[in-house]
């Protein structure tokens, strides 16, 4: 049984959001970009940004990786970028009414 340290996901999620938004702003986000959950050998999960899932090779310090958000990832970053929030606020999230 895998016991996940979910607390470790929060900093990695923020970092992944930051990297994804920066790549979006630089015009480097592609249809193959994704948010991925990766597990270290001690079963600690991390959320990482993958620029191109077609050519992704799982780094050696991870034993497993799977896409969390793939094809719609560009749409999500488009929406966040469209809010024209400062980078830090976009990464932290904001309350947006739908």
Could you explain how this protein is built, in words?
- This protein is an alpha+beta fold and 98 residues long.
- It has one domain (6-83).
- The chain contains three helices and three strands, in the order H-E-E-E-H-H.
- The chain has a three-stranded antiparallel sheet with strand order 2-1-3.
- A hairpin with a 4-residue loop joins strand 1 (34-40) and strand 2 (45-50).
- Helix 1 crosses helix 2.
- The longest helix is centred in the first third of the chain and has 17 residues, at 9-25.
- The chain is globular and about 40 Å long.
- Mean pLDDT is 79; it is low at 94-98.
List keywords for this structure.
single chain; 98 residues
Low-confidence stretches: 94-98
Indicate the structural class: alpha+beta
Strand residues, percent: 15-25%
Give the spatial strand order of the biggest sheet: 2-1-3
What overall geometry do the principal axes of the alpha carbons give?
globular
SSE order: HEEEHH
Helicity range: 25-40%
- How many β-strand runs? 3
The termini sit apart by 39 Å
- Mean pLDDT, to the nearest integer, reads 79
Number of domains: 1
Number of helices: 3
Return Rg in Å: 14 Å
Main β sheet profile:
3 strands, antiparallel
Chain-wise SSE layout:
Layout: H1 9-25, E1 34-40, E2 45-50, E3 62-69, H2 73-82, H3 87-92
Antiparallel strand pairs: 1-2, 1-3
Helix pairs in contact: 1-2
What's the quick description here?
This protein is α+β, with helices and mostly antiparallel strands. The chain has three helices and three strands.
């Amino acid at each position: 049984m895998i016991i996940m340290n979910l607390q470790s996901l929060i900093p990695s999620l923020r970092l992944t959001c930051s990297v994804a938004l920066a790549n979006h702003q630089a015009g480097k986000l592609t249809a193959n970009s994704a948010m991925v959950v990766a597990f270290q050998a001690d079963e600690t999960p991390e959320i990482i940004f993958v620029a191109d899932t077609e050519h992704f090779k799982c780094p050696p310090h991870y034993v497993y990786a799977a896409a969390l958000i793939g094809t719609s990832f560009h749409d999500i970053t488009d929406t966040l970028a469209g809010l024209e929030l400062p980078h830090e606020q976009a990464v932290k999230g904001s309350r947006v009414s739908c």
